[in-house]
Design a protein that fits this description.
158 residues; 2 helices
Length: 158
């Protein structure tokens, strides 16, 4: 049979031809814009994961180093000279004898740039009570924000 040439068939064809839609160029441009947006989002996500992992690793190592020093000082006899009042936990003013500079693996750094600075302060609260404060700060470079640090406090009685 074939296609009849009735007027109603011509009007339907005309309506389909005049219908608006997206051209191939418009579609490709939309996909390109979406692709650029997704690439930027992926880059931001990757950077945030790396920064979070690095910050978390350094914060964890700082906490372990602080705990190690706290255990060492807490294990000393109350009258031990190492528990004499003194020291400072202010990063800008370390006191000789109350500071260690550490490598990333937790060993004491005797030369070069340390990865962590561990400081402690002993305060005589009373004749029978000493407060021990240990602070560890990461010396690694962080582009945004402050480097991780940990502060621990305990009290020691005879």
């Amino acid at each position: 049979m074939g296609c009849s040439m009735k007027p109603e068939n011509f009007s339907m064809y005309k309506r389909l031809k005049e219908a608006s839609g997206m051209t191939l160029i418009e579609s490709m441009l939309s996909i390109l814009i979406l692709l650029v947006g997704l690439l930027v989002l992926a880059q931001v996500l990757t950077m945030s994961i790396v920064a979070s992992k690095t910050y978390g690793r350094d914060a964890g190592k700082a906490t372990v180093s602080a705990r190690d020093k706290m255990e060492e000082l807490s294990g000393l006899d109350f009258t031990n000279a190492a528990l004499n009042a003194g020291g400072s936990i202010a990063p800008s003013s370390p006191v000789t004898g109350y500071v260690d500079r550490l490598n990333a693996d937790g060993t004491i750094n005797t030369n070069g740039a340390p990865d962590y600075t561990r400081q402690w302060q002993i305060i005589d609260d009373s004749a029978n009570l000493k407060r021990i404060i240990v602070s560890v700060t990461s010396n690694r470079s962080f582009d945004h924000g402050t480097p991780p640090s940990t502060v621990m406090v305990t009290e020691k009685a005879p």
